[in-house]
Amino acid sequence: MDRQKSRAVLIIVLVLECVLCLWTGLHFGRSQTVGMDQETLMIRKTDGSMEPGFYTDYSCSDHAAVTTEGFPLGRGIYEISVQAQGKGGADLITRLVSDEDTSTDGNAHLVSSDSVQLKTDGTATAYRAYVHVSSQVRVEALLKDTAEDGSYLLLDTVSVRYLRGRTLAHELSKLLFLFLAADILLVLFFFFRTQTVDWLRTHGLVLTGLAAITAFACWPMLRDRVFFGNDILYHLRRLNYLGEGLMNGQFPVKIQTGWSGDYGYAVGVGYGDLLMLPAALFVILGYPLSWCYELCLVYLTALTAWIAYRSFTGITKSRMLGLTGAALYTLYGFRLYSIYSEATFGEFTAATFLPLVLLGLWEIYTAEDAATGRKGVHHLAGGIALVLSSHVVTTFLLALTIPLGCLLFLRQTLRREVLVRLLQALGLSILLGLYFLVPVADYLLTQGIAGTYWEVLLWDTTNAPEALFANLPDPNLIHSGWAGIGWWAFGALALCLALLLSGRFGTRSRAVAKLLLLEVVLLWASSESFPWFLVRRYLNPVYEILTNMQFAWRMVGIAGALLVLLTVLSLSVCNPLQVSGRKLSAEWIALALGVLCVVQTGAFYHETLTVARSISMVDRAALPAFRIDEFSIDAADPELPYREQDVVLPEGSGASGTVLRQHGLTVTAQVVVPGPDAAEVRFPRWGYKGYQARTSQGQKLPLYRAADARVAVTVPAGYEGEVTVSFHEPWYWRVAELISLFTLVWLLLPTACKNVIIKQMRKE
Fold this sequence. Notes:
Blueprint: H1 3-27, E1 33-36, E2 42-45, E3 50-52, E4 55-57, E5 63-67, E6 71-73, E7 76-87, E8 92-98, E9 111-112, E10 116-117, E11 121-131, E12 135-143, E13 152-162, H2 164-191, H3 193-217, E14 226-227, H4 232-247, H5 267-270, H6 277-284, H7 289-316, H8 319-331, H9 333-342, H10 345-351, H11 354-366, H12 370-388, H13 392-408, H14 410-413, H15 416-432, H16 434-446, E15 471-472, E16 482-483, H17 488-501, H18 509-525, H19 532-538, H20 540-546, H21 555-572, E17 577-579, E18 582-584, H22 586-611, E19 614-615, E20 656-663, E21 666-672, E22 679-686, E23 691-695, E24 700-701, E25 703-705, E26 710-715, E27 720-727, H23 731-763
Antiparallel strand pairs: 1-13, 2-3, 2-5, 4-13, 5-12, 6-12, 7-11, 7-13, 8-10, 8-12, 9-11, 14-19, 15-16, 17-18, 20-21, 21-27, 22-26, 23-24, 23-27, 25-26
């Protein structure tokens, strides 16, 4: 097909896409509100029969729920508001269900709705629900079977409101992403067919391999629920309120609302959220929270496989070994354990960039020319900065292990060119991470942050040596238990040792032996056989520093990356390998290790799918209340936000005030100070540095942190009007962000220009 016909086909496709988008906008541009009161409510009994009523209690064994009559809802996103009174705490819940889905667990997926705890003081409980297929639905309020004596439920009103803007954003974005993918394929097929075919011939095997690795690593995510992990609710909350912070105009989102009774929490200061940003955009577009979290896991897994492939390919100069390293690193047990059992988002996000750190160190120490050394500096600095942007504790572990590795290679480290490159990488990583380092250092040094006081001793957070390689089931049946690195690690370590003893590494034998020693030390330090007690007794200052890693088993994450490096290095020198007079190629050894890794991963998945508890999370309303944690202000009372939601003025002053509106971190209150003296007005926000107060005329008012850690504003005598408190990053935070941005552009611009020049030369 010639270019003119191809252009015509593409134009027709674009027109059809525009028509479909227009039809979608008109179809979902409707308005709908449904309201019901006690006169129309029903009691649904356990046998499925209905009778009029709006009350049930613990003694009504045949009452399954108080429910509305069935009513039709079209496809879209709805806000359900339920007003109730009762007693029973977490045993009182509400949800939206479809009458047309007669399966036990809602397997038809006509409706997605969390089971949300009801407020029992007469105020409304609001939550979102998704109607995927137009159907007859009803709103239920339940009193669980676990309710104790005296529990009861009285339902007052139910309101269902169609969220037109959120639904339009959700449906149109799905179409646009689909159309974008289709249009890219059409352009490649019609206008760049030759280049695309040539590229696929060259990279098709690697692309297929990386896609297969990513798909297998993400296999348990093929559901509309997420697996319960120890930190899952914490990171779901982070993701949700990161999206809402962006929607409210914050960038970057350093303090998130929705924590601590909406007083705010500096989670964005202590936790880097750079890799969460793409998923947070989908939160804004109305996608279910659990779906956004799983999307985050998918693209992080794909990024892990790709970075591992590029890093190990760069080290071994072999695509096959790079793909082997990507498979072993992406699928090794501890990484999957971090995702599906612990939900330690920071750890497995930071682990994405550990192969990049290894690549940078390898290039710095083995560089034979300036260009390779410069690449090593960039790779090491970028890897460290990205780890820092993901998880501070993993950065601390790198600060321990990288100097230890440099000491093992002291002679090479003291070479002028190597030492200069290491210092350059350190300085560059600081510049790249300055946008994160400045706020966290500012708050830790000046804000009286609570921090983490870790009482558990390191030898209480270790595992039995055999557990480092095996899968252990969860005795509590909450998640899928512990997964070690995998049995393939035994084969890899044995292979490396055998090749060392046989001299196959040649001039690199001493270097590989040192890496193997470091690997053994890291694994030993994460096991209960390590003498942590003796370290505490005789090297207590060192022990106090090491407690900052909180869990000794975190060493397994660093050890896993180093183990894969040793594996690909071993495979690179064992082709062919003589075993009992027979030749055994590196490809067959890699296949055997890969199969063993996949089999153990499959066993872990079986445990996950059959034992682990999964949770539905489509809306923030189901998230439990968060009170206080490591980046809270030390003097903050965790119960205060649940007692005080309005402004507070000094008693006896005659001053009065009330909150008029809140938008994100911004609070506006009407304040009257009639007396001869100024009044201190305390706002419902924790007093983190960065807040400012202004009158409705724009006059800036003195602001400080009150004794109870809230934002306090001094309002002058005789003032009557609005006072607005809003958060603004300090100027030096912005300077740090600009420095990091300019450093990134300075690094990427020469590469981009070089690629453009190369493409132009090829055309000529």
